[in-house]
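Contributing: when you submit paired examples, paste them exactly as shown. First protein:
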Amino acid sequence: MPHPAFSWHGKRVFLTGHTGFKGGWLALWLASKGARVRGYALDPCTDPNLFTVARIDRVIDDIRGDIRDPGSLESAMQSFAPEVVFHMAAQPLVRLSYDDPIGTYETNVIGTARVLDSIRRTPSVRAVVSITTDKCYENKEWIWGYRETDPLGGYDPYSSSKACAEIVSAAYRQSYFSTAKLTEHKVALATARAGNVIGGGDWSLDRLIPDLVRGFLAGEPVPIRRPHAIRPWQHVLEPLAGYISLAEHLLSPNAAHYATAYNFGPADDDAQPVAWIVDKMTSFWGDGASWFLDEQEHVHEAGYLKLDASRARADLGWTPHLHLETALEWLVKWYRAWQAGADMHAYTLAQIAAYESLLAGT
């Protein structure tokens, strides 16, 4: 986990995708640690959204731009002179990728190459964490977790675009950021693969938790597509803690060892079917919340997917700290607080502080 002696205070961090769900939580967390964060992203794609609701623009430098635009991207990065880059900007939805495959590949593959190429011409950068997904693996629907050495693949445009982003990142590492020549170029590049993240502030379309919350708030039964599908569910703060720890290790004297791919997945008993999640959510929410099986024909989605996070445990000392049931309870409380008109900047920071206290206890 994070080095006790490491300080983010004053560290300059360039974060792509800060207006998204995961990016918003990471921006707020890094800023709370004293980092100077510049976010670069498109406008939030939903209304409401975490970035606006939690007033994240109060604590970071908010730049709007497209990672596919090399002039805008490079200018924003070079003028800030960051030491650390977290690349999170992406088209993140499987079902949307079927509707817009070209846009998905342009953003997730060419966009990643643009970010890495901008880093190549930004001499201040020392550590890069490029975030992809658990869906970058060739999914064989087997019961054990995928390891970082397993074959990449992807049935749908989204999943395959993320496998491509991994290959692009590896190619840039071998071509420009070689670990053997780290003393020359000084850039340590790692990739991070996480599972299905959940938490307060996610209003994405066509995702299980946001769909449930929208239905519950409207007092309507929620249609559920694949109740038996199993996913590696985890609270958003779990993989983010891994990304932060990984960046810290990439800034260490032994950075070359950590310039590789890492999985961040939950404990085995937290890989649960959709129906289990939905039943827990309806129970925590109360107020007559309910769901029903949507029997319409839908596009292909993986039925079973788990990650093996042994490398992150061994190298980084990273372990999950929030059991899935607790994670669901936290996110229901977050949405209930928002519904009641609470100060969501303060509330989100309070959940981060509560999670940090769990980390401190290990």
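Second protein:
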Amino acid sequence: MPFDGVERRHASGAPANVPESNEVTVFHELGKALTSSLQLDQVLRTIMEKINEVLRPDTWSLLLMDIDKNELYFQIATGKGADALKDVRIKVGQGLAGWVAETGEVVVVPDTTKDSRFFAQVDERTKMETRSIVAVPVRFRDQCLGVIELINCFGENGFSQRDLALLEALADYAAIAIENARHVQRIHELTITDDCTTLYNARHLNFMLDTEIYRSHRYAFEFSLIFIDLDHFKNINDTYGHLMGSKLLGEIGQAIKDKCRLIDLAFRYGGDEFVVLLPQTSKENALGVARRLHKLIRETVWLKEPGINVNITASVGVAAYPTDSRTKAELLHLADEAMYLVKQTSRDSVAAASMGVLPTTAPTA
């Protein structure tokens, strides 16, 4: 039965009611898409294409949840004005999509002018007129992962309970696809991430070095490596225990990461060693970064939260591509060798391949 006062629009020549056999075909194709591909965008686009094919709205969109910011963003949007939605964010509870995300309930609005929840600012951005909306939550267990929204999908045949049931079933497929993709992503992150510091691990460093050497060779870029080894770290473990030692590594790893640019990559190489990969960075500029990281580690009071308040220094080595070497193994060796030169002499300083230990500069204010 159609909703009271609700009419559904169909494209000319399209059947008013979707045959059950067609629905079976839709679900069969979606099942194949889910099992044949772990590419989230590909599966979601297949789902949304089926929504377009079967329910025929003017426009449709899939909004996904940014859990950290408690906001919805447009993952996929079609139709006129879709490009204008790329940077639009909707707070949970804001507008009809936000209401669906907050409550986990379906919403069917045949006339948006009569619903106070309607968020007109999206229309202002897209320059479109939203007359009617159907929105369903994309849920996995008790968590809302996003919202599927159909715009202007009403016409002379109404929007039936069967249509709504089909849309909710398609939303379930979307939820499965999203959760599968996130599960695969979590597994991938575990294979390339160090548990203690949440930085990338040495395995991923080897992969990224291969990638950076290829890219830098192709486009005639420079890049640099910084090796960092904490001085007398064993004393921390011996004095305060391994738990506090691990916490210190985590704090220093996060501090290094926070000082990196978006294109830089920070790694825990092993033990108390860290590596920073600086794409498109000359040796001279990398030395400036190395000095700043050395100063950061030296002058920060660590382990404040547990009330330990310790200071520690670091030995730092720098090597650059192609200035010092064009091969991964040699580049790693040279940066490591420069760092060990510091450890074997003064500690608490910076050295560079082919340059030796650098003179200590006066501390800046």
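If you have annotations for the second protein, write them as plain sentences, like these:
The longest strand covers residues 143-151.
The radius of gyration is 28 Å.
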